[in-house]
Amino acid sequence: MSDSTSLGAGHDASRRNFVVGAGTLAAGTLVGASVLASDVNAAPAATTHSSSKTSKKVGDMSFITTKDGTEIYYKDWGTGQPIVFHHGWPLSSDDWDAQMMFFLNNGFRVIAHDRRGHGRSSQTATGNDMDTYAADVAELTAHLDLKNAVHIGHSTGGGEVARYVARHGKGRVAKAVLVSAVPPIMVKTAANPGGLDISVFDGFRKALADNRAQFYREVPIPFYGFNRPGVKTLDGVVDNWWRQGMMGGAKAHYDCIKAFSETDFTEDLKAITVPTLVLHGDDDQIVPYQDAGVLSAKLVPGAQLKLYKGYPHGMLTVHADVLNKDLLDFIKA
């Protein structure tokens, strides 16, 4: 493991206090700020790579139907080595616009799906757990017959990548990238004393159930670091976050809070055998970097760790120019 940045405990304590503040919620209003963490009509025409009785197209939109009848929406553009993008909670494949276009224009085949219960996929009442998320990805990659693929996951999507690569990816995966990702485990346990108390995630659930629309208005502010002094709020970015979140199902999003906070990925990380890059911002107010990226990089054999000073949880959007170059360098190495 290589660690590109050394960071002080005082800075981390300040950020953590801000995160823990999200555990105190009243009447569905976010008091602290902490949550995990574009348009299909503007997308390039999809390239058809496979067909199946379990797939369908609605206009320019492509879906597969999983074994339990769930419809999973996906984008599949271009040719070349495949890169599969896994989005965070409660977003959709649209969150990868900056990366999809960049890598498409650099000669890659780019694929991104809406996780069950999110975006344009079925608003599922069941199966909203990490095992099923990974199994859905396995069905999609088998349907598209993806091999030598790079899997990149952000936030909750990083957990999905870890579980998929460890349990389903043998023979199909070339490399993996975890960006601002939730592994090894977010919640505080005896084995993870640096995690967040369960009351924080109970607060998320209450806010979502009380007033999801307002909750999703407030979350993007710390998500992108717009609450930091001197940082200009990008209204379009906030609106796009809210739009993606409100496309999904409330029940699936509620259940996913347990999936991203309480799933233990320790054994998945240890089982990854492909080259892996772990990226995290040191001002991530959503997923504590010291208890996430730093620990994950220690668990994945041979993983590379890169920390970004002052970067927020949503750095893939607001610092896409920097992140895209680093991702490309890793993939081409």
Task: Outline the structure in words.
The chain is of the alpha/beta class and 333 residues long. It has one domain: 3-Layer(aba) Sandwich (Rossmann fold), CATH 3.40.50.1820. 38% of the residues lie in helices and 17% in strands. The chain contains twelve helices and twelve strands. It has a ten-stranded mixed β-sheet, sandwiched between helices. It has a two-stranded antiparallel ribbon with strand order 2-3. Strand 11, helix 10 and strand 12 form a beta-alpha-beta unit. Helix 5 packs across helix 8. It is globular. The protein starts with a strand and ends with a helix. The relative contact order is 0.18.
What is the gist of this entry?
Helices cover 38% and strands 17% of the residues. It contains 12 helices and 12 strands.
Q: What's the layout of helices and strands?
A:
Elements: E1 2-3, H1 9-20, E2 25-26, E3 29-30, E4 55-58, E5 61-65, E6 71-77, E7 82-86, H2 97-104, E8 109-113, H3 130-143, E9 149-154, H4 156-168, E10 173-179, H5 198-218, H6 220-223, H7 235-247, H8 250-262, H9 266-271, E11 276-281, H10 293-299, E12 304-308, H11 315-318, H12 320-332
Parallel strand pairs: 1-12, 7-8, 7-9, 9-10, 10-11, 11-12
Antiparallel strand pairs: 2-3, 4-5, 5-6, 6-8
